[in-house]
């Protein structure tokens, strides 16, 4: 993979593509708008249609640089297909993922640059972030909620750029996870996601283009996970 379709064309959720390989219940496309999952973001949901028959995409399995789309029937497809990502689900993932960056950035800046030890978005409009933060005062973490919402309301532009992976790795805080490194693309680059004036970090997911496209967020819970980790549970505040 050099550049992913969902990075270059985040707004395109429907695409006609040729099937280049297939096996029963799994299909490989020349191009796909589906996000395959990763970094705590869930795999896109949606359908594949061939000759007026529609199949649910039940998952995506990566095999080297191939992304096999698993379908809900044990048949072997060929020819041209219409791929359609569930855009409501994608939008929710973009919103939660952007909130994850905002919260991550503000905790990073206020608590001495802790790295993430885990992150997971959920289809119920919540997410959790685990930080390597031994000894942190949970009440102080909880008190960051207004800062998260100020960043949302400020309408900060969210953009992407590419940087040599090794160069990014040498910059403190550009790789924000303690446990997983972001993907090195075939051309040796890594994707950097920038929230104007707030944060820059390597990331392969999908995001909103401005922070004010997000609804407000609330901190649902701050928990200790072992001696080392603090878990923040966040949820979209629809009230
Ligand atoms: Zn991201």
Describe this structure in words.
The termini are far apart. A six-stranded antiparallel β-barrel has the order 1-2-5-4-3-6. Helix 2 packs across helix 4. Helix content is 20%, strand content 38%. It is globular. Strand 4 and strand 5 form a beta hairpin. The longest helix has 24 residues. The protein has five helices and 13 strands. By secondary structure, it is α+β, with helices and mostly antiparallel strands. The chain folds into two domains: 81 residues, Elongation Factor Tu (Ef-tu), domain 3 (Beta Barrel); 147 residues, Threonyl-tRNA Synthetase, Chain A, domain 2 (2-Layer Sandwich). The structure holds zinc ion (ZN). The site of zinc ion (ZN) has 6 residues, from helix 2.
The CATH C-level class name of the largest domain = Alpha Beta
What would you call the structural class? alpha+beta
Radius of gyration: 19 Å
Helicity range of the residues? 10-25%
Helix count from the secondary structure assignment: 5
Series of secondary-structure elements, N-terminal to C-terminal? HEEEEEEHEEHHEHEEEE
Ligands in the model, by name, code or SMILES, are: zinc ion
Q: What's the shape?
A: globular
> Main beta sheet: strand number and arrangement?
6 strands, antiparallel, barrel
The span between the termini is: 41 Å
Secondary-structure blueprint:
Blueprint: H1 5-8, E1 14-23, E2 26-29, E3 46-50, E4 53-63, E5 66-71, E6 80-85, H2 87-110, E7 116-121, E8 126-132, H3 138-142, H4 145-153, E9 158-164, H5 165-169, E10 189-195, E11 199-202, E12 217-225, E13 229-236
Bound molecules: zinc ion.
Zinc ion (ZN) is lined by residues 97, 101, 193, 203, 205, 207.
């Amino acid at each position: 993979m050099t550049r992913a379709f969902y990075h270059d064309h985040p707004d395109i959720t429907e695409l006609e593509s040729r099937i280049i390989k297939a096996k029963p219940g799994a299909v490989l496309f020349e191009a796909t708008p589906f996000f395959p999952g990763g970094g705590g973001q869930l795999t896109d949901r949606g359908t594949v249609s061939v000759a007026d028959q529609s199949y649910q995409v039940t998952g995506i399995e990566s095999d080297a640089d191939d992304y096999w789309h698993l379908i809900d029937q044990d048949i072997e497809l060929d020819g041209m297909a219409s791929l359609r990502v569930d855009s409501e689900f994608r939008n929710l993932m973009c919103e939660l993922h952007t909130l994850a960056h905002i919260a991550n950035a503000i905790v990073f800046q206020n608590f001495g640059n802790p790295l993430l030890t885990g992150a997971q978005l959920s289809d119920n409009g919540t997410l959790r972030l685990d930080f390597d933060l031994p000894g942190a005062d949970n009440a102080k973490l909880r008190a960051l909620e207004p800062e998260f919402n100020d960043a949302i309301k400020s309408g900060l532009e969210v953009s992407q750029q590419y940087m040599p992976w090794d160069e990014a790795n040498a910059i403190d805080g550009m790789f924000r996870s303690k446990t997983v490194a972001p993907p090195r693309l075939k051309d040796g680059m890594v994707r950097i996601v920038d929230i104007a004036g707030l944060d820059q970090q390597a990331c392969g997911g999908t995001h909103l283009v401005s922070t004010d496209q997000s609804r407000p967020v609330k901190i649902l819970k701050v928990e200790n996970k072992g001696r080392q980790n603090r878990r923040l549970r966040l949820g979209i505040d629809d009230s």
